[in-house]
Amino acid sequence: MHSNAVRESRRTQLLVLLVAAVFILVAAALAGLVAGSIATLTTTADDIDDQRALQATSGAVHALRKQMAATLRDNAYWDDAYAEVNAETRIDWIIENWASTSADYPLYDTAIVVDSRNLPVVAYRKGVPMNVPPSVFFDDFHILLDAARRARMSDEVPVYFARSSAGTELIGAAAIQPFGSAESLDPGRFYVLVFAKLITPAVVAEVSDSFAIAGLRLDLKPTTGRLAVALKCVSSKDIAFFTWPSVAPGTKSYEKVDGHLRAAGTVLILFLCAIGVAGGLTVRNLRKSERASRHRALHDPLTGLLNRAGLLENVATASDWARLNGKQLRLHFIDLDGFKAVNDAWGHAVGDALIVAVSHRLLDALPDDAFAARLGGDEFAAVTLEELGAEAIPSFGRRLQEALASLFDIDGRSIEIGCSIGVAVSERGAVETGELIRRADIALYRAKDLGRGITIDFDDSFDDDALKQAELESQLRATLLKGGISVVFQPLINARSGAVTGVEALARWRKEDGIAIPPDVFIPLAERAGMIDLLGMQVLTTSLNAATAWPALGVGVNISPLQLKNPRFVEEVEAALKAADFEARRLTIEVTEGVLISNPEQARRAIEGLKKIGVKVALDDFGSGFASIGSLRRFGFDRMKVDRSLVAALDVDQNAGAVLQATVALANALEIPVTAEGIETEQQATAVRLSGCDELQGYLFSRPVSADAVTALYCGAEAGGRASQTGR
């Protein structure tokens, strides 16, 4: 029995040992699997954070270059700057506006302007003149200047990093040119503005804080054990590196639980539990880190809204949902009206605060199941999901425009803006994301073209219109190159004598197929396509050449507000007068009220220049807009032309006569003679005569006629005058 008990005990012991061994082997295997998994998770976490840091640092480099490019664009593509650097006082102006500010301006510490031969006109660093030529101080300086001259206004401003005598610098250059630069200007003759900023430890520290990159520093070459992003020069060479240590969140997380794992080693169950807990914590940390990195990648840092990448991803997801649930997706592209003026007047800090305030109102206006994004600058987007064919009343666009119509209070400033909205619809998610965005973009441009402050839904006809506009633009360009724009003339009648005292020149365009294109179509087209200067000068030259045959008649020529932005406009008018041997006093340039509001200082300079050479200036279409008494006094117009709408109202509005009399009385009080336009009946002619208008124009007297017809009319009047004198 004892032997049986011993054998039973031994069998039990063996079984226990076997179970223990198996348990230990299983535990070891599980521990090995868990350890391998933790190692993989740790490495993955480290890699994710490293990639996040690489993206953040690359983004920081991009942000530095973009900020410098924006600063150069604002300062170089500027009408006033172009005029000033081409003036005799250029050096004083450059020093006052750019060079002296290099002493303490946060975005640059070096300001250089070179002429068309790449010779420095002014070169300041930290507020004092440079004692070393820029081409010696900066590597690849001439290569950067060449890149600036090749860049068109629509291209990115060339901004790179460079080695200098002081260290590593952020440097960019842009050709100084008018904002609406004509294609006829030679880029090789432009002055070039160069800004540079030394990458100091303080700059590196600011980047480190702004983009959450711990331990960031500037090195001339990569350092072992540190992550790095190259800083490239204009020749695409690596001249320096931003480097920083890997944070290794996965490794640190593992180190935090390693002690617990060792302590639990004596008790297998506790050991396994500890591994499970540690694994769970690690996974949770990894997921949290991944969510944070993903959020940063898909959201705008200023407003917290989705960015462009986030919008694309969410639109794709929403399209799938709309497809499965039979809904329609409505994409709104939103552009703020008047934001650039806020930035120009009060700076980017106020502009950023305004953008944040707009984002809050945008979110408040969003319906349920909708989302919004900031696409950059003052552009936003919103996506709503609705029932098929639904038309929300009021629409989201209307609600947003009403929300933005209220004044914004930014740091004690009352700011008023609006927005234009383009909308594209995808029923059941059928429209591909890229195509949906294209349609919304086209609709937005249509909204801005129609006057801003409105919401426009995309229509298939917009594509047809775009093609037609492109074809019409090409035909207009070809016509202008051949000098094919014709001019007709409408007589101006003395209100007392009935004699013809002058003519107004009017542009006409008849295509090769015989179809006449109205001026209200081809003139805005020429403005958008950058051809208005060429069109305007052709009309002026043709008018002056024709009017040389009518020495007793004055000639009025309309100009576009965009022509006044050309700093050489007055010079070109003077050259045209000399070429035609035409007396300046016989020419009247007619401008509309809009130019007085959009850019009053520029308009004032141009008007003063015209009057200085003897040309008269008339305010056209008075009464159709917002010109004030102050404007009439300030600009010193030689004549005011009453808008045809005031004359037409005489037939339908009993108060129109009083309005017309008040308008003419205002001009007479300021000793400005008045022309009444659009007269079609004898009753209208009598009314405007009695109101005090000294000059009349309209179909009652003559439609616009050719130059030959005016010559015949003029010669007939001359002959009649001579006959009367002979008879006496």
What key attributes describe this structure?
disordered C terminus; alpha/beta; disordered N terminus; eight-stranded mixed barrel; 728 residues; Alpha-Beta Plaits; 25 strands; 51% helix; TIM Barrel
Describe the overall structure.
This is Bifunctional diguanylate cyclase/phosphodiesterase. Residues 327-460 form the GGDEF domain. Residues 469-718 form the EAL domain. This protein is of the alpha/beta class. Among the domains are: 2-57 and 248-298; 308-459, 2-Layer Sandwich (Alpha-Beta Plaits); 483-726, EAL domain (TIM Barrel, Alpha-Beta Barrel). It contains 25 helices and 25 strands. The chain has an eight-stranded mixed barrel, surrounded by five helices. The chain has a six-stranded antiparallel beta sheet with strand order 3-2-1-6-5-4. Strands 11-12-10-15-16 form a five-stranded mixed beta sheet, with helices on both faces. Helix 10 runs antiparallel to helix 11 (348-365) and helix 23 (656-669) crosses helix 24 (682-691). The radius of gyration is 37 Å and the shape is elongated. 35% of the residues are buried.
